[in-house]
Amino acid sequence: MAKYSVVDKGECIACGSCGSSAPEIFEYDGEGLAENIFEGDGNQGVKAIPEDLEEYLAEAAESCPTECIKVADTPFN
Fold first, then answer.
1. How far is residue 61's CA from residue 57's CA, in Å, rounded to a whole number?
2. Among 28, 40, 45, 76, which residue has the least CB neighbours within 10 Å?
3. What are 17-57's pLDDT values in tens digits?
4. Distance between the two ends of the chain, CA-based, in angstroms?
5. What confidence tens digit (pLDDT) does each residue in 2-27 have?
6. Where do runs of H (alpha helix) occur along the chain?
7. 27 exposure class (CB count in 10 Å sphere: 0-12, 13-18, 19+)
8. 63, exposed or middle or buried, with CB in 10 Å at 0-12, 13-18, 19+?
9. pTM as predicted
């Protein structure tokens, strides 16, 4: 089943954990806050994360100290 993800930037502390766990999915904006960049998603949570990256997505979400990475089975928008 497809997974979708967004980052709650209001909770992000720019620790770098998600970018090191899943660099194909997460990158940092001009303020250093994480965002979902997978296939140009723009942190909207509408691009399905492929199955071969789901393990990295789960690792990033689990390692986030503020739990700002949200993961769902349906698109966010």
1. 6
2. 40
3. 999 999 999 999 999 999 999 999 999 999 999 999 999 99
4. 18
5. 999 999 999 999 999 999 999 999 99
6. 17-21, 54-63
7. middle
8. middle
9. 0.93
| Contacts within 8 Å (CB) and 24+ apart, 10-14 | 10/68, 11/66, 11/67, 11/68, 12/66, 12/68, 13/65, 13/66
Report the topology of domain 4-70.
Answer: Alpha-Beta Plaits (3.30.70)
The structural domains of the chain, with segments of one domain joined by +, span 4-70
For residues 34 and 13, give the distance between their C-alpha atoms in angstroms, rounded to a whole number.
Answer: 9
77 has pLDDT over 90: no
Amino acid 1: pLDDT: 83
User: Residues 6 or more apart from 22 whose CB is under 8 A from it?
Assistant: 53, 56, 57, 59, 60
Amino acid present at 48: A
Helix, strand, coil percent content, the chain, rounded in steps of 5: 25, 20, 50
